[in-house]
Amino acid sequence: MSVGNTAKILLADIGGTNARFALSHGELSNGDEIGPIDYVKVADFPTVREAITDVLRRSGEQPKRAVLAVAGPVTNNRCVMTNSPWVIDGNELQPALGFDSVHVLNDFEVVAWSLPALQPADLISLGGQDGLAGEPLLVVGPGTGFGVSCLVERHGARLAVVTEAGHATLPAENEREERVIASLRRRLGHVSIERGALSGSGLQSLYEALAEVDGIQAPQRDAAAITKAALDGSCQLSRATLEMFCAILGSVAGNLAVTFGARGGVYIAGGIVPRFPEFLAGSVFRARFEAKGRFQDYLRNIPTRLVTKPDASFVGLKMFAKHNPD
Fold first, then answer.
1. What pLDDT score was predicted for residue 311?
2. Which CATH class is domain 119-308?
3. What is the DSSP string of 80-123?
4. 167, pLDDT greater than 60
5. What is the per-residue pLDDT for 31?
6. How far is the C-alpha of 198 from the C-alpha of 181, rounded, in Å?
7. Which site from 73, 95, 193, 195 is most exposed, i.e. has the minimal number of CB atoms within 10 Å?
């Protein structure tokens, strides 16, 4: 992973199972690249400090700054990981590892930072116009959970707003969805966007609720199996589930677009949707995104795009470092 003497910033994308590290080059101008990505298994190291120490030892470098993306909530530059024993505390890592600064960011905040730098090859268009320059950019992502972040630019300064919008109440747009949500409510109590539909577990919950509403004895399937059966046409219930998933995603994305005034564009990320871009594009996603009554014209002008770049997080880490030079 050695990248020579110009490496100055350690970048990291840390999940519950794997962590990825890379070293930046130069002064992070638009043309700069990052070094090779070093993959580390979280279980191989008791603490993040030991993992970073090993990464830097093997690289032969001692960068002065670190920007770390973590899959969890960040408070006061600190994250207690939910799916691993690591506690990532930037204020402790800074003196312990000899950094001048350490920034700990939520992983979806980092995706928001990447949006202005993504290229056409990194995206699939899902409708709309070109978006308005300088207006907020929104990213939503169904995956293990449902992430939402918005990048706002004012007077040359950028801020990524991190939210817990996935825990807002799941809305219904028609009678069938009302019946599905009623079924979910009997089992879950509060039906959030994340638990009721727009996540891996949410897709499974949606499948089970649809089976109950339609009176179908359905085989048990997880999110991956539901998606596969929907796409290969082997299960009508799975296909109906994925269709409702795309419809709800459109409605929720439209709701969030008007909430944030995201006239710069709405981006879909996360681990689920990139597996079926053609299905999403052919669904009612875009129609439901625009279906906001008197604000339909407002939504019609907002572009929706699917993020397909696998290392968008490192683009976001680099962009954050560029705009926050300490």
1. 86
2. alpha beta
3. E-SSSS-EEEHHHHHHHHT-SEEEEEEHHHHHHHHGGG--GGGE
4. yes
5. 46
6. 13
7. 95
Least confident of 47-51, 90-94, 279-283, 310-314: 310-314
Query: Apex CA 30: angle with CA 55 and CA 40, to 5°?
Result: 20
Contacts of 263 by beta carbon, 8 Å cutoff, 6+ apart: 131, 132, 135, 136, 298, 301, 302
Give the three-state DSSP class for 247. Answer: helix
H/E element holding 213? helix 200-214
* C-beta separation of 237 from 207 below 8 A: yes
Whether the predicted pLDDT of 299 surpasses 70: yes
Q: In a 10 Å sphere around its CB, with 0-12 CB exposed, 13-18 middle and 19+ buried, how is residue 133 labelled?
A: exposed
Rounded Cα gap, residues 126 and 81, in angstroms: 34
* Residue 30 clears pLDDT 80, i.e. is over it: no
Query: Which of 22-31, 32-41, 149-158, 308-317 is predicted with the least confidence, judged by mean pLDDT?
Result: 22-31
pLDDT single digits (tens) 183-209: 999 999 999 999 999 999 999 999 999
Q: Is 310 helix (H, G, I), strand (E, B) or coil?
A: coil
- H or E element in which residue 142 lies: strand 137-142
Instruction: Classify domain 9-113+311-323 by CATH architecture.
Output: 2-Layer Sandwich (3.30)
Q: At a CB cut-off of 8 Å and minimum separation 6, what does 248 contact?
A: 170, 173, 177, 193, 197, 198, 288
Q: What is the pLDDT of residue 51?
A: 97
Q: In the structure encoding, which two tokens stand for residue 312, read together?
A: 């968008």
The answer to whether residue 293 scores a pLDDT higher than 70 is: yes
Annotated domain spans of the chain:
9-113+311-323, 119-308
Say what the pLDDT of residue 27 is.
52
Nearest-angstrom CA–CA distance, 196 and 202: 5
